[in-house]
Amino acid sequence: MSKDLYPIGEVPPLGVVPPTMYACTVRAERYGEPKDSLQIEVVPVPSIGDDEVLVYVMAAGINYNNVWASLGVPVDVIRARQNDGENLDFHIGGSDASGIVYQVGKNVQWPRVGDEVVLHCGSWDDNCPKVKAGIDPMYSPTYRIWGYERNWGSFAQFTRVQAKQCLPRPQHLSWEAAASYMLVGATAYRMLFGFPPNVVQEGQPVLVWGGAGGLGSLAIQICRAVGAIPVAVVSDQSKYEYCIELGAKGCVNRNDYSHWGMLPHWTDKEKFDVWLKEARRFGSAIRNVLGSSEAPAIVVEHPGENTIPSSIFVCATGGMVVTCAGTTGYNGTVDVRYLWMRQKRFQGSHFANYEQAKSLNDMVIAGRVDPCLSRTFQFSELPQAHQLMYENAHPHGNMAVLVGAPDRGMGRRIPVPKP
Ligand code: NAP
């Protein structure tokens, strides 16, 4: 007999959907550090539309965007949705998941009930005129990140997604590993392949900030898979071995430099010269790792304010600094002399479209990219897991949380496949 509420870890019979579920929510009155703002409560299970799918979540991936949702900055996600007409006063984060399909809308061809899937977080309206005209849906005004801009994310027993967000689960991975890579992996994929002609290529140096982080660990592996030469920036020598194991040629420790932050004004010659000296020293450390005079053809940026001046400075002539975030702040100052004289490109990037998410998933299925799952949490530990991320005290690679999946021992690390 169906229950009104299933305990975490007890999988309901296939296709049986209870009226309520456990979810880890954020509410506006709790905006602040994740340890305080994230709480577990019982909420209704959402109903689905004709093009949607209800997935029973086996495991969910932990990403930085739920840290932002917890803080209520840079976007108050609850108010933003209320302004768009949603009447819910809570946010269920979680933009990565593996799970089993429990219900499908009447227009859905694939997946079917019972299919094991991983979810990507890109959603858009297929009826948008731009999408219908064949423009990348990432540029559609209807594009929303599920579990951030859209509600009913994966930090719950059931999640509601568009059918096109589903991709086949790599069968060689545990539920938790399968839940951990898509958001950062597909983002890195778009950054590296999405902006021709600045596309990652064999033999090309690529600078990857936060090489031991979620985005960085996946970016390094994607570079390695195509024969490019990634160089990782990290904050501690203890991360060198990890990045090199993933495929980095070597690492640079950002704590050996002091010029981070917004650029000094160009008219303040004294301060600017100090900055320039440090930036040159940083560039020379990258060349030392590469063992050549080449500069990075692509710089994978996300720290933002602290690092963008240096990223632009060290990028090769004709190269691209591609950014998807401003973790340290949003005032990414640019000395335009380096942009125009050296004809560099400063490109924004945001998650991925379906083809890019699928291509990344295919690389994982083929064993060319490892999810880099480093730690798995219990559902009740979601606030602590996000707090660790907020404090940059989380382990290397990616983290996941068990929802319906059995606990098979915490922190299982899947060996990185060799090229
Ligand atoms: P993560 O796992 O926390 O990794 C970030 C890395 O950044 C850390 O490992 C850290 O490495 C490095 N870092 C921290 N402070 C830094 C500083 N002051 N200067 C330079 N590097 C610093 O997070 P993630 O999952 O990779 O995500 C990184 C950022 O990208 C987040 O802001 C996230 O929201 C964003 N993101 C955006 C999208 C999108 O679609 N727009 C998608 C994915 C992620 P070290 O301390 O070793 O240097």
Helix content: 25-40%
- The CATH class of the largest domain: Alpha Beta
Class derived from helix and strand content: alpha/beta
- How many domains in all? 2
Report on this model:
The structure is a single chain. The protein is built from 13 helices and 18 strands. It is α/β, with parallel strands linked by helices. The protein has 2 domains: 20-183 and 352-402, Medium-chain alcohol dehydrogenases, catalytic domain (Quinone Oxidoreductase, Chain A, domain 1, Alpha-Beta Complex), CATH 3.90.180.10; 195-348, 3-Layer(aba) Sandwich (Rossmann fold), CATH 3.40.50.720. The strands form 4 sheets. Strands 3, 5, 6, 9, 10, 17 and 18 form a 7-stranded mixed β-sheet that branches. The protein has a 6-stranded parallel β-sheet with strand order 13-12-11-14-15-16, with helices on both faces. The protein has a 3-stranded antiparallel β-sheet with strand order 2-1-4. Helix 11 links the parallel strand 15 (320-323) and strand 16. The longest helix is centred in the C-terminal third of the chain and has 22 residues, at 269-290. The protein is globular, with a radius of gyration of 21 Å. Bound molecules: NADP nicotinamide-adenine-dinucleotide phosphate.
Short description:
This protein has 419 residues and is α/β, with parallel strands linked by helices. It has 13 helices and 18 strands.
